[in-house]
Amino acid sequence: MPSDFSWDHGDSGRPRLISLAAFGAAMPIEFRQITFTSHELRAALDDFFLRRNSPLPSGAILGVRWDGSEHEHLIIEICAAQQSEHVTVANRDAGAALLRYCFLNKIPLPRASRKSLGISGKNLVLELRSGSPNAEGGG
Predict the structure, then answer these.
(1) Which of 29, 59, 106, 137 is most buried, taking the most CB atoms under 10 A from its CB?
(2) Contact between 125 and 33 (Cβ < 8 Å)
(3) Rounded distance, CA 118 to CA 131, Å?
(4) Is residue 71 within 8 Å of residue 93, measured between CB atoms?
(5) Cα–Cα distance between 6 and 22 in angstroms, integer?
(6) Which has the closest alpha carbon to 109: 98, 120, 123?
(7) pLDDT for the residue 30
(8) pLDDT: is 88 or 13 the higher one?
(9) For the chain, what are the domain ranges?
(10) Are 57 and 78 in contact, with CB atoms under 8 Å apart?
């Protein structure tokens, strides 16, 4: 039996398996990625920026990429009327838009998880990590 579990006989006298995590034992790391399609990303960003009276240019999102090596901003390529336009969005704004999208669409997110953004192909990804010592905000 793994050392993170123990048998407890409880009030009923029947043995039951309990987790030692409640007693400060290490927890396994959970890592989730939620990949947003261009349509989902567009819906999330439109909701976020329209609420701030700062709408994005109309058109379909063709892709996203990092702006520089610091990864503090995203460059979003938007195509409208057969012309491509690049819009720079701060990561904190993109992250807030994705979190709100998840909330509005009832996509469960662990509250205590460490959240970050990633890019997979041309899609934006919300990454969630929990269960490690750094889960609640370190690095």
Answers:
(1) 59
(2) yes
(3) 20
(4) no
(5) 11
(6) 98
(7) 83
(8) 88
(9) 25-130
(10) yes
